[in-house]
Amino acid sequence: SEGMHLLTCGMGPGRVRLHDRMVRAWNSLILSTGLRTCVEPRGLYQDQRRPDIVIPDFHDGRGMHLDLSLTHPCLPSNVSPASHMPGAAAAKREGVKRDTYKDCAELFQPIVMEHCGRWGPAALHFLDQLAKRARVSLPDVTCGQFRDHWLKRLGCELQRGVAFSVCHN
């Protein structure tokens, strides 16, 4: 029960450590496509919001703001939806992130993963977009190879972070 609490509780250093670990992994993924990034820039919004990653020139001169979130299907607020549809917790969290950044002047992309490893649909779509971009900087790698590599790498990074949170909190 203690291990589950560490993953579902909204408080504590383990949650922040895991989030930051995943931000670094996603940043590495984006950089591997040849795009430039800025991690957790300050001062973009009048309030306290800070996107996790900004890609200054993503599409047609517009930047892309990414906000990463991790959720767990066993959170009390997710139990009912998650029990009916795999990935419902991630999809629900994507909606919350979209609402939070609805006034973003740039493009916005929520990146949500469930602690158990399921990805939100928007995150998978964004990974596919990055795989297509990677063809320019990595001509010997197919989109499928790029996608599979990063699905595995990000999944392993997530599970390493979960394991660390359970063992060290």
Which tags fit this structure?
alpha+beta, four-stranded mixed beta sheet, single chain, 6 helices, 16% strand, 169 residues, 4 strands
Could you characterize what this model shows?
By secondary structure, the chain is of the alpha+beta class. It contains six helices and four strands; from the N terminus they run H-H-E-E-E-H-H-E-H-H. It has a four-stranded mixed sheet with strand order 1-2-3-4. A hairpin with a 2-residue loop joins strand 2 and strand 3. The chain is globular. The mean pLDDT is 84.
Quick gist of this model?
The protein has 169 residues and is α+β, with helices and mostly antiparallel strands.
Topology:
Elements: H1 2-8, H2 13-31, E1 38-39, E2 53-59, E3 62-71, H3 79-84, H4 88-100, E4 107-114, H5 121-137, H6 143-168
- Major beta-sheet overview: 4 strands, mixed
Q: Please count the helical segments.
A: 6
Helix content estimate:
40-55%
* SSE series: HHEEEHHEHH
